[in-house]
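**User:**
My hope is that you can spare some time for a protein that puzzles me. This is the protein in question:
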Amino acid sequence: MAVAAAGAWWVTRAPAPATSQTAQTPASAPAANGLLVVDPAKAAALGIATAPARAADQAPLADLPAMIAPPANARVAVAATLPGTVLRTLVVEGDAVTRGQALAVVASRDVMTLSADLARAHARAGVAQSSAARLAQLNREGIIAGARADEARAVAAEAGADVSEKARILALVGARGSSGTYTLTAPIAGRVTKADIQAGMPVDGTTAPFVIDAAGRYEATAQLPERLIGQVRVGQTVRLPVAGGSGSVTGTVTAVGNAIDPATRSATLKAQLPADPGIVAGRVGSITVWGAASGGAVGVPEGAVTTIGVDEVVFVATPRGYQRRTVHRLGAADGQVILRDGVRAGEAVVVHGTSALKALAEAN
């Protein structure tokens, strides 16, 4: 996309090349076809600078208010696995966390019970294994039947499985049997968007004190006006201005509703956006939807367009002076105006000193 991508405009402060005729004219003079002949010295004094118009294959269709949030499958609730009392919180709302990072420490009587059960299971397993080994030896010596040895091995295996299960549960909740506590940890990397927890409060398996939004992508939801339904399609580009150095982020339309809300006369639009430090989940922003531009469309900096009477105009540098051109815009976004006509790609348009040329044009 030649113009839709943000980028610096190459600005040239040199005025239009002067000819011998220009040198003999006054500081400024009108000419046919909207041409202003400006003395090079005066052009420099006015700070006139130009930049090339650039071909545009996309144009902004609409600016839409949108709610920014993580996709539904990128949000995870962290539940308290065992009932207990919060001893300490380790993160607050808004913190970035990594997978496995500790979120809070909870004291739980169930941890003590599970630890005791594990100790008893270890003891039973030890006795069962010793008994199985002894009976296996007696079976080999022909003193007892093989069925008794097999039964003892089954009991030992069952006791071992009981130990493994209780140990797995304690490890899963991050329990410390000696202190009777367990640790809530982050199941994914992301940002804590809910931390409804504080030291001293009770928790149980029915509550989810933490919610973590996965880092990496966001979803914008907006209402698309009825007049644009059919023009906006899945795969088209959207832009969201953000605070900070990046200026804006570029995303993609992922869904356009095919049912019109009778109250708002609009359909739901969803777009996916990449992660950016300037994006905050839950905030309302304004997304710009871009569509295909008509053939011959160009983009120029906003400073190049001014109004004379009822017309929007730009001034194009030519070897003889600055020619006023009437233009028609397709839209504007990110400091650029997309023009349908009046200027060709590559022509040098005035981007600084436009107001001075406008005053000269109106005076003449």
